[in-house]
Amino acid sequence: MKDISNPQSTKEILKKHGFTFKKSLGQNFLIDRNILSNIVAQANLTEESGAIEIGPGIGALTEFIAREAKKVVAFEIDQRLLPILKETLAPYPHASVIHSDILEADVHEVITREFQGIEDIMVVANLPYYVTTPIIMKLLTEKLPIRGIVCMIQKEVADRLAAKPGTKEYNSLSIAIQYYAEAETVMKVPKTVFVPAPNVDSAVIRLTIRKEPPISVKDETFFFALIRASFGQRRKTLWNNLINNLNLSNQKEALQAVFDTTGIDPKRRGETLTIEEFGILSDAIGPLVK
Ligand code: SAM
């Protein structure tokens, strides 16, 4: 039996069901078995693992995950794909599909219900690019009991997620992600392995969830608000961004005192600060905005 992702099989499946791609749903399907098997290898699944997939499409990646894991649960938004998946995944009874927008789904509840007795859970996905960041942020901020996420995303976003301070890719997203997980780009992927080919280059990243955040802050919500404020206008100094974006213009003296005490230069730009420095500033500036 041929893989679902075999270019000929994919063509036949799409033709048989009269399926047409919806660009608005980020539908670019994988047709290269080497890439699929490499993605799954990056997740280090065992026969005891559970896997969550987002956007199974016609099941190209689901099949490769199902060959390694004890159980796969895939969330698919497009109803037209459900009868197709029922057919293509028939040889894999331990793979099931939930018809849902992942952003609306109660993933905690699904994990409790579907992965009883399974301790090692990974998310593995070729993500729809129009919602990459909200999906990743949802999975991280909801503090799901998962070991990590291996996913294909736009290369440009991958560069930002794994960026180090002082680089041009480093921004509030890099810090937000790195607060919850260790991020690494594990593979670059050419456009030619998808149908239809996307307009952008792709990469696979692996996010390994941290047991503890790298720093401890008094108020996590303010910590993220401070980071967003610091990157508000990229060319502006930290001082100007904080005054403008946190409405601190009548607190200039107190803000100056914070910089004096912490030894952080307010003329620096947000992208040069480390996560630890943001943590120090967050605890010191937090009380000023209350
Ligand atoms: N996994 C398949 C593959 O690799 O060939 C398809 C990947 S395709 C890039 C993205 C998939 O995500 C599509 O099947 C699309 O319908 C689905 N999708 C888009 N938005 C979604 C959402 N908000 N929730 C769940 N699935 C979504």
TrEMBL record:
Residues 35-211 form the Ribosomal RNA adenine methylase transferase N-terminal domain. It holds the Pfam family RrnaAD. It catalyses: adenosine(1518)/adenosine(1519) in 16S rRNA + 4 S-adenosyl-L-methionine = N(6)-dimethyladenosine(1518)/N(6)-dimethyladenosine(1519) in 16S rRNA + 4 S-adenosyl-L-homocysteine + 4 H(+). Its main location: cytoplasm. It is found in: Cytoplasm. Its EC number is 2.1.1.182. SUPFAM superfamilies: S-adenosyl-L-methionine-dependent methyltransferases. S-adenosyl-L-methionine binds at N28, L30, G55, E76, D101, N126. Keywords: Cytoplasm, Methyltransferase, RNA-binding, rRNA processing, S-adenosyl-L-methionine, Transferase. GO terms for cellular component: cytosol. SMART domains: rADc. GO terms for molecular function: 16S rRNA (adenine(1518)-N(6)/adenine(1519)-N(6))-dimethyltransferase activity; RNA binding. Belongs to the class I-like SAM-binding methyltransferase superfamily. rRNA adenine N(6)-methyltransferase family. RsmA subfamily. PANTHER family: DIMETHYLADENOSINE TRANSFERASE, DIMETHYLADENOSINE TRANSFERASE-RELATED. Specifically dimethylates two adjacent adenosines (A1518 and A1519) in the loop of a conserved hairpin near the 3'-end of 16S rRNA in the 30S particle. May play a critical role in biogenesis of 30S subunits. This is Ribosomal RNA small subunit methyltransferase A. It comes from Fictibacillus macauensis ZFHKF-1.
